[in-house]
Amino acid sequence: MKILVALKQVPDTESKIKIADSGSAIDQTDIKWITSPNDEFALEEALRLKESMGAEITAVSIGGEKTKDILRNALALGVDSAVLLKADAIDDPLVISGALADFTKGKGFDLLFFGHKCYGNDNGCVGPMTAELLDLAHAHVVTKLSISDGNFRAEREGDAGIEIIEGNLPAVITAQRGLNEPRYANLKGIMAAKKKPIEEVECTLMDATVNIPALTLPPPRSEGKKLDGDSTTQVALLISLLRNEAKVI
Prior knowledge:
Layout: E1 2-6, E2 9-11, E3 33-35, H1 37-53, E4 56-63, H2 68-77, E5 81-86, H3 93-104, E6 111-115, H4 126-134, E7 137-148, E8 151-158, E9 161-168, E10 171-175, H5 187-193, E11 199-202, H6 231-244
Parallel strand pairs: 1-4, 1-6, 4-5, 5-11, 6-10, 7-10
Antiparallel strand pairs: 2-3, 7-8, 8-9
């Protein structure tokens, strides 16, 4: 079995985000970059399939030199090879999907794993778009997966309860929180990953259809209010504030 895991490098969720002077991008000064947390579920599921069934795993990411950090982490965790599709920062999900589809064609992957969306811009289109471009079956926001005899059975949490999706391989799976618990790299894996090569491939991109003209931070939250008095007084004051100030009732 051959498995591809697509990874995206994103700012650490604890980083303090600032807008760059251009007004259309974030200031990357002092930003710590990590693997998108949802992609960690995808990577972990691939590793578990490798351990239980035997598989060859390739991790791929699009970006520049710093993107190699998350590929090295994937190698430390146990993937067999890593590929960097060299390109500048891309915000268009269709462009990303097109690049991944072009790379994947003809390589014989049985499973393509994605996080169901990336942190940062919350883009949840890349997995399904890649499946569509490759004409593959796919299951989105998966919380349970089993593989047997060239078929997959996936569970996802729908509005009406648990939905079951079954299909043939090759297929695209997007992982959701709850699918597994991602592991951490150990020291032996980290040291071994430093010696492993990362293949670099020049990425030919289609013209972008998405343009971000400006970014703005959300407005700061106003200070809270402390309500004095006994419970009856507090309730009356709260209702008054909700009606007259917040205007939600």
